[in-house]
Each structure stands twice: as structure tokens, then as C-alpha cells.
Amino acid sequence: MGCAQSELKVVRSVDIQADGVERDAAGCTPTYTGHHASSAGDLDHAGSSQLSNRFSHRRFHEEYVLHHKLGCGAFAAVYCCQPVEGDPQMLAAKVADLRTAGSKGSYDNAAIEVKRHRAMTREVRMLSMVQGNENVIKIAESFVEGGLAYLVMEMCDRTLLQVLERTRVWTEDTIKPIFQGMLKGLVWVHHCGVVHRDVKPDNFMCKGPTDTIKLCDFGLSCELTGSEGVVGINGTPPFMAPEMLKSHRYGPKVDVWSFGVLGYTLVFGHFPYTPVEPNGPAMKAAILAGNPAPTFRQLHSSSRVPVAHQGDRAPSQTCVRFLQDMLCRDPVRRPTSKDALAYDFFRVVACPEANPRDSLRPMLHMAKRCGAFDQPQAAKSEAKTEVDARLRFLQESVRPTPCDVKPQVFSQNSEISTEVGSEGTRMMPTTSKNSKVTCESRQ
């Protein structure tokens, strides 16, 4: 799937609007207008007409042409789209169904599901706050029209897994730029006062000839509004930090922990905390208890038992120390994302303890087996759902004969699939074959 390499501009400020300043259990403000919060009303008691009046009614289909579907979830789907005028680059449009269950079949006067509305406005708000860094996904604009919300973002070329699988020589030194790109994205997000809360391999995409790392999926993100931190258990079980699971207040360092889990898994081939039964509740219990403790050893491909390092199979000591500090259980002693970038692991050009001919590729295979990457879900082949039919109707009513391009709203794309839930988006290769995914991906 191609993607224009020209720089994506923020076309106009975000148009999703909703009044109210109450905060949810996670300490997040769920109601936003572009880059500024609004401050009246109560979403919990707002009727459908009230919510409708708080959104912009600009028409998405007058400005964009939808192409193939990239993926779908319970309440949203992602399509490739293209502006009618201006830069013809391909973008990604997340379309979320905001209607209540009782409003199916109706759009123009549909009642809005408050929880879905909050999730979408929170995602837009968080994305608008963190714009301006090449390692964070860019948002172009957003719309609400007849019970459907549209979030237009830049389209990436490849998933992180695709980049890792296509890298011919994969050693500590070749993975350093990937880790650096991830941390640079986190440094910026934290500088903007946002905690991502779902850092994991599938929430990093890659774009351009140099595979620039892009942090994406801000559906669970939260704004830091003071020095006390936030609360709430959110994310993917194997990547959750101990302080989050203890229901303590926490800050950006939960993302550093999650990054440490990601790095540990790619280097050692297994999660740092792996219970006998590797399911979500057991994973969280192991992280809480700190048992079984991380071994910082690689696995044999034929066994789940860590083995002592032998010869050039051992990761360098600078790499081990780096990951040990990222996984420090005490958040006070754990480095910040900015501190992490200053570690010797990134300063050493070639690790003297590591054999550059040795590859970490077997650990990638093991990481896939243990469930570090979500199992991809291809877009539904029939695809003629109620929402798809509505999108086709809207597009054809606005533009019976599209300019220059033919819409392919219901065609498949074999390279990248995007799994979309009510709270976030994940783009994944549809052709990958993960043999085992053992943990729930959302809580």
C-alpha cells in the first residue's frame, strides 16, 4: 500500500465538540473542541439533540473520497481516503458509530451513546495536544455527521512487525534506531502533558523510506493536569506497570515501563512476567506480585525455559542494564523517557560484547509466539454492513461521479489491516500468522 511522502499539514483545527468539564475515573477530561476545552453542560444527561448541536456539521463526503477498508472493529472502521481538492496524498479515516443500540437503522436523528462519544472526543483531544513531532501520528481533521464520527489521520506504510520481519540484519545495533524513535515519540507526548497508557509493539507504525517510527492509538491516553498523577487501570495486561495495577496514582513513567516490556520481549523472546497460565488476569497478578521475576535471559526456540547466555547469543551488558532500569518496579527510581534516551546503550556505536553477525530474529519469532503482537483481524469480506451501506449512500449522494478516482469502499487490502475498538486503533498486517495470542488486548 503506497502513501505519499509529502508532509501532512493540519488542514484545520479539530471540529469534534462537546461541552462539559467533568472528569472520568482516570482523571481525563473527555470533552473537547479542537485544541481547547469547552466548559458547559453535562454529557451524562445530554439528549441526542443536545449532543448533535455540540458537533460540527461539516460534511466529510464533500471533502474526501473513501477507498478500500483497512480494518474494522465493534464500533469503528478505518478506510483509506483521499482529499477531493489539494494534496492528493492518501490518508486514513477512522469512522466511528456513535449511535446507541436502539438507534440502529436511523442516522439523522439518532441518539448518541455517551461512552462512545467520550472515547472519540478523548482520542481527538489527545491527538490534537501531541501534534508537532515526527514520531507521533498526525491528525488532519475530524467531523461528525448523522451519528458517525470521522477522524482523518496520516496513513503509514508499514507496521512495526513488518519492518522487523523485513530487516535483513537485525542485531542490537540495528534495533537501536527503532527504540530511539519510540522514546522520542514518548518524550514529546510526555512533554505535552499526556500519558499514552497503551505502549506496545502494535501501537507503533512506520512511514517513509527510512521507516520513521510513529506512535499511534491514543484512545486510552490521558492528560496530566497536576502533580498528583492520574488513576485507572488501562492498557494491555502484559505491558501494565505495577503502580497502575496497584490502583496508585501514576504519571508518564507507566509508559516507560511498557516500553521496557516491549524492549525486553524483542530482545529476550518472552514477557518479563510470564505466569504458568499466560492469560490476562494471571499476567496482571504476576506483575503485581513481582513473581516469577524477569530472568533477562533469552529462550530456546523449542522451549519456554530461559537458558544461560552462551557465547555471542548473549545481549550486551549495556543492553541488559538499560532494560533492567526501564523495568524498575519503583516508579520514583525508574528513568523518565528523556533520561532513557541518554543511556549508554544508545551512545555505544558497536557493542563490544555482542557479535554483529548474530541476529535477534529468533527472539522476534519467540515474541510473536508469546503474544507480543496482536493477532491480526482482516476486514470482513462481505463488508456490506449497515454503516458501510450508509457511507456508500453518503458518498454517492454527494459525488455520483468522483473526481479522478473511483471509490472502492468495500475492497480489501492485503498488506495492512487496522483493528479498531471503541477506544483505539491498531494497524496490523493481515498476512501475519501469530500462532498464539494469550492475553486480552483491552481492559
TrEMBL record:
InterPro entries registered for this protein in UniProt: Kinase-like_dom_sf, Prot_kinase_dom, Protein_kinase_ATP_BS, Ser/Thr_kinase_AS
One GO term describing the cellular component: cytoplasm
Signal sequence, start to end: none
Binding-site residues, ATP: K94
Residue span(s) of domain Protein kinase: 64-346
PROSITE patterns: PROTEIN_KINASE_ATP, PROTEIN_KINASE_DOM, PROTEIN_KINASE_ST
A Pfam short name: Pkinase
Start and end residues of each stretch annotated as Disordered: 404-443
Any Gene Ontology biological process: mitotic DNA damage checkpoint signaling
One Gene Ontology molecular-function label: protein serine/threonine kinase activity
UniProt superkingdom: Eukaryota
Biased composition (Polar residues): 409-420, 428-443
Keywords noted in UniProt: ATP-binding, Kinase, Nucleotide-binding, Serine/threonine-protein kinase, Transferase
Coiled coil: none
Family that this chain belongs to: Belongs to the protein kinase superfamily.
Protein name: Protein kinase domain-containing protein
Record organism: Zooxanthella nutricula
